[in-house]
Design brief:
Layout: H1 3-30, H2 41-65, H3 67-73, H4 79-110, H5 119-150, H6 156-177, E1 190-191, E2 194-195, H7 199-210, H8 212-237, E3 243-244, E4 265-266, E5 280-293, E6 299-304, E7 310-316, E8 320-327, E9 337-339, E10 363-369, E11 374-379, H9 384-390, E12 393-399, E13 408-417, E14 420-423, E15 429-434, E16 439-446, E17 452-457, E18 462-466, E19 469-470, E20 482-484, E21 489-495, E22 501-505, E23 508-517, H10 538-541, E24 574-587, E25 590-597, E26 608-610, E27 615-622, E28 628-632, E29 637-642, E30 653-654, E31 657-659, E32 664-670, E33 676-681, H11 684-688, E34 692-697, E35 700-701, E36 705-706
Parallel strand pairs: 4-35, 5-8, 7-12, 13-16, 15-23, 24-27, 26-34
Antiparallel strand pairs: 1-2, 3-36, 5-6, 8-10, 9-11, 11-12, 13-14, 16-21, 17-20, 17-22, 18-19, 18-21, 22-23, 24-25, 27-32, 28-31, 28-33, 29-30, 29-32, 33-34
């Protein structure tokens, strides 16, 4: 069973345990509410209560039984479950079993015989059993609250509130059902001068009449505690509205305190440098709202940069990119973010962090040196969950003039536009000619928020580059899919055969890219030789290429890898843990079942503060049921391990790390690009619901605000 499945089982067991303990309290009370009813219903109620208590104990114990397997996956899958949940639920459950089972057995076996133990002892055992089960129920519900609300890094005050509410719940049950023992009795509870076993609850009901104030006070305190915590969380979720991002005040090096920061550098001044004599590639992009008709004939409203995808941008290493962005009528505003490209921070295009959104009638010029080759893409980073989905994206390729270029170079952006799957600009067939025996490079880009799997038919291929970085000695691949997480890229290369090569995606079932041998007629009837659809079930049965063991390792190199040297030479100066989870949170003042980072939803996620030159080991843990393609802006990371297993192939250098459910990735990040950078899930809906944080360099500040009068909304 996978770690993700174990987490799901643990969640189901937690819900079952909470429900069973609550039912056990109710059934135990129900079995002792009437003193004179001698119908068979009472023994049956006691038997049912026993059964439910047994189920509650079994569910609770089963949660403990899977803890070792969760720890084996990673300590972070079981951290609060072991240190907090275990004592929180085990002690009350043991008390409930020891007090409740003997009492219910007596009720089932002796029925309603008023003889036996003395009335005071009987009432005491009843009260003890009910309160013990109430404590088990309260702790089981508190355990769920720990999972869904507090998360993996609970603050001491939040734990104190949780324990207080659990204790108050037990106190409320006592006040509601039981009074202090005394001489008060009802005549109906006396049979032949002997107090029946049920008279304790009768006194409890009279106690409800005599002590409503105390019970109401406890209930009111619980309500006020919950309400106050909710108001506090709501205020925190609104704390970024109209506020600038605070500068990192220092950097903890593991030994001393934070270093002081004097005269912070604003992100707007981090422009980089361009060679004076460099060739300038000038482009103009105009964002607009338009009605788009696709090759299938279907029409939909889109936000575009003039086409779908936007205009293809290209450059060569050393050239200067100069892109003028204009906004014609996109009311939400736009920016340009260069996905995977390590631009200077001022050019990163994140509204509210590195610039203000470009509103209708406004413009902005982006200028930076093309310093890294490969396949990238650009998109808006203002209200991007909606803007990118509606079409504000395009492709960006930088060529290395010292390397040979493929004779046929095709860029394919996979995208879902209002439910219409696109490959490139088409939701149907698109054809590209290539001379048999010539080299072909297909640059696959996932511009969607969900993962995509690509099927290449008609030839074997090599995965030549991943996220813009060339693979060392790639081998031939056949019979495998290429999986791309959201935002990811893979370049595939092959020698053109004398028969067609097709590319399909599971996210665009009606689209196909055909590379046709030139010299043959690929129009009319001949084109019908290419099936309209992929073979049924092929995406579910074909294995996926694992990039961690693909290619050849680089042995004995002294070359720089993502700003870090060979493993033996790396000196890690910081370690960070990023736990991805789901909890109930307020996001922008709206209650959501949010996607969280380290137990918090943005903007309450603590930033990752670094100093220039740091080498940071980042451990990313996915405790959810969804994949999370984590994308650190302005940096690439080198993969150290996945689930404890180091890569055995070519060094894997990524800018978007697709962390699947139950996975743990260890990454190496070199802090060599000063600024304030977003680090977020590139399922942009997840980011908009809280799964983003900031990577902040010591001594850098931002003059821009999120929300407020500027209407900046990075996600």
């Amino acid at each position: 069973m996978t770690t993700s499945q174990l987490l799901a089982v643990d969640l189901v067991l937690a819900v079952l345990a909470a429900g069973a303990w609550i039912s056990a309290v109710w059934l135990t009370v129900a079995s002792t509410t009437t003193s004179t009813d001698r119908t068979p219903g009472k023994p049956r109620a006691a038997s049912l209560a026993l059964l439910v208590v047994g189920a509650a104990v079994a569910a609770t114990v089963a949660r403990y039984a899977i803890l070792p397997a969760l720890v084996a996956g990673s300590w972070w899958f079981a951290s609060e479950r072991t240190t907090i949940n275990l004592p929180l639920t085990a002690i009350p459950a043991a008390w409930a079993a020891m007090a409740g089972v003997p009492f219910l057995l007596r009720r089932r076996n002796t029925g309603f015989n008023p003889g036996g133990p003395g009335p005071e002892r009987s009432a005491r055992s009843r009260e003890w059993a009910v309160l013990a089960m109430a404590a088990a129920a309260a702790s089981a519900v508190a355990s769920l609250a720990l999972t869904f609300i507090l998360g993996p890094f609970p603050a001491p005050w939040s734990l104190a509130v949780l324990l207080l509410v659990a204790a108050l719940s037990v106190l409320f049950v006592k006040l509601a059902l039981f009074t202090q023992r005394g001489p008060v009795r009802k005549a109906s509870d006396i049979e032949g001068g002997v107090e029946t076993e049920n008279s304790g609850l009768t006194r409890g009901r009279s106690g409800m009449g005599r002590r409503p104030t105390a019970a109401a006070a406890v209930a009111g305190l619980m309500a006020c505690t919950a309400l106050g915590s909710g108001v506090f969380a709501w205020l925190g979720s609104r704390s970024s509205d109209g506020v600038v991002i605070a500068a990192a005040v220092g950097h903890h090096d593991g030994g001393g305190g934070p270093a002081a920061v004097a005269d912070p550098t604003p992100v707007s001044s981090l422009l980089g440098q361009s060679p004076a004599e460099a060739v300038v590639r000038h482009y103009e992009l105009t964002a607009r709202v338009e009605q788009v008709t696709l090759p299938s004939g279907q029409s939909t409203e889109a936000w575009t940069f003039g086409s779908l995808p936007g205009p293809a941008l290209e450059a060569e290493l050393g050239e200067v990119m100069e892109v003028v962005l204009k906004n014609r009528d996109v009311a939400a505003g736009v920016t340009l973010h260069w996905h995977g490209y390590d631009v200077p921070n001022a050019m990163d295009g994140v509204a509210g962090a590195t610039q203000d959104a470009v509103m209708p009638g406004q413009s902005m010029t982006y200028r930076f040196t093309a310093a890294q080759s490969g396949t990238y893409w650009y998109h808006t980073h203002q209200d991007s969950a909606e803007g990118v989905r509606k079409g504000l994206y395009g492709t960006f390729v930088v060529h290395d003039p010292t390397l040979p270029r493929a004779q046929t170079d095709i860029v394919v952006a996979g995208h879902d536009l209002s439910g219409l799957g696109l490959l490139g600009s088409s939701d149907r067939s698109s054809t590209h000619p290539a001379l048999p025996g010539s080299s072909v490079r297909m640059r696959l880009i996932n511009t969607d928020s969900l993962p995509q799997r690509y099927l290449v038919e008609g030839t074997s291929f090599k995965a030549a580059a991943v996220d813009g970085t060339e693979v060392n000695q790639p081998g031939d691949v056949s019979g495998k899919l290429v999986r791309l997480g959201a935002g990811g890229r893979v370049d595939i290369a092959f020698t053109m055969p004398d028969t067609p090569v097709t590319l399909r995606s599971d996210a665009a079932s009606s689209a196909v890219v055909v590379v046709a041998p030139s010299g043959a007629s690929w129009s009319g009837a001949a084109e019908m030789e290419v099936p309209e659809k992929a073979p049924p079930g092929v995406f579910n049965t074909t294995p996926v290429l694992d990039l961690l063991d693909y290619g050849k390792p680089v042995v004995g190199t002294k070359a720089d890898l993502v700003g870090t040297k060979a493993d033996a030479e790396v000196a890690i100066t910081r370690e960070e843990v990023v736990v991805l989870d789901r909890q109930f949170r307020f996001v922008d003042g709206i209650p959501r079942y949010a996607f969280t980072v380290n137990g918090a939803a943005y903007p309450l996620v603590p930033s990752m503060d670094v100093a220039l030159g740091d080498t940071v080991k980042v451990t990313v843990v996915n405790r959810t049921a969804d994949p999370h393609p984590m994308h650190p802006h302005g940096h690439h990371v080198r993969v150290l391990s996945r689930n404890g297993v180091a890569p055995t192939g070519s060094p894997l250098v990524l800018d978007t790390v697709d962390v699947l459910p139950g996975e743990v990735w260890e990454l190496l990040l070199h802090a060599d690009n000063p600024g304030i950078w977003m680090d977020h899930c590139h399922n942009l809906d997840h980011a908009a619901e809280g799964m983003m944080m900031l990577l902040k360099y010591q001594g850098v500040s931002s003059p821009f605000i999120q929300g407020g009068h500027s209407h900046n909304r990075p996600e």
